[in-house]
Amino acid sequence: MTSTPAAETNHISVDSHAHMAPRALLERLATSNTDFPHIAVTPHESTFRVAFNGGEPTRPIAPGLTDLARRRAWMADNGIGHQLVGGWLDIFGYDLPADEGVAWAEALTAALRAEVGDDRSLTVLGTVALQDPERAAAAVKSQTAEGLPGIMIATRAGGRELDDPAFEPLWAAADEAEAIVYLHPGFGGASDRYQEFGLVNGLARLEDTTVTLARLLYAGVPAAWPRLKFVIAHGGAALPYVLGRLVRNHTINPDTTKDPLESFARLYFDSVVFDADALRFLVTKVGADRVLLGSDYPFPIGDLQPRGVLAELSDQERAVIERGTGRLLAGGRS
């Protein structure tokens, strides 16, 4: 059980957006892997790379993903008392055959929970096989029954957009469990236009999130499942800024789009925007109680001094944002 009681999380700064990879599992698979025929884990300097289905291996797994001592020291240095940790999306394995993907998602989740152990400063988000929505729904039910508060997912899998009706069992299970669904971009927007200048991280991921969100809002998914807690990485990407245009498009096409404002009002956003003016805009747009402190730890593109961007907000707004994830873990907004 890795969740933290409300009495603790409501009085500390909580980082809502962080990633982790299970070193013990990777070490075992690099030595002997008989369980996952379509996964290859290979040592790389002091860490590992992972390949799926005989394809190119991932980037080397950043040491910060697997080093708990480094994580705890960073948290202490930044005044973070608690952290919500998801897996690393590069190794979610959405392209695996369904049966193997389900087993892999279960192994990742179990391994993260084992590594966190009794550390009450960390709460794990589960991983699910998004390429198999029915079994992803079953995983949400079992993981939340075991004490996890929700899952982290990417913006698409198996050639499906998240507004596809095939995902309704997943939303239904998450809604029933009142679970967090942390939506994080992958590589979906990374066309050839983004290959120079570091634009895959600098911009493509934001495009990926923005398009997925526009589709979800026009399909009315968040509004249809009001107990599900969608948390959107990177301040919602461009969505808060372009919302007016989406509303205008809805007024022109009311028969083919749901009102995006109904679903937008149900979203939560992290604070990983790096810009005090952008964060002020977001807080004005959605309210401080819909914004959660986030870092994207341990990546260089993340905000590794996450409380700094809050400096120009009021004391009350800062307190609400720093404790927001604690309120979600406790089951409510207040």
Q: What does this 3D model show about the protein?
A:
With 334 residues, the chain is α/β, with parallel strands linked by helices. The chain has one domain (6-20, 63-330): Metal-dependent hydrolases (TIM Barrel, Alpha-Beta Barrel). It has 14 helices and 12 strands. The protein has helices spanning 6-9, 23-31, 63-66, 68-77, 98-116, 133-145, 168-177, 199-219, 221-224, 239-252, 260-264, 276-286, 315-322, 324-330, and strands spanning 14-19, 39-44, 47-52, 82-86, 122-124, 150-153, 156-157, 160-161, 180-183, 229-232, 268-270, 291-292. The longest helix has 21 residues, at 199-219. It starts with 5 loop residues before the first helix and ends with a helix.
What's the total count of β strands?
A: 12
State the helicity in percent bands.
40-55%
Characterize the overall form: globular
Gyration radius from CA atoms, angstroms: 19 Å
Strand fraction equals 5-15%
Give the termini separation: 23 Å
The number of distinct helices, counting runs of at least 4 residues, comes to 14
User: In what order do the strands lie side by side in the largest sheet?
Assistant: 6-9-10-11-12
Low-pLDDT ranges: 1-10
Supply the helix-strand structural class: alpha/beta
Reading off the top of the CATH hierarchy, the class is best stated as Alpha Beta
- CATH homologous superfamily - what is it? Metal-dependent hydrolases
What does the largest sheet look like?
A: 5 strands, parallel
Report the order of strands and helices: HEHEEHHEHEHEEEHEHHEHHEHEHH
Query: Averaged pLDDT, please?
Result: 93
Number of individual domains? 1
Q: What is the fold named in CATH at topology level? A: TIM Barrel
Q: So, CATH architecture?
A: Alpha-Beta Barrel
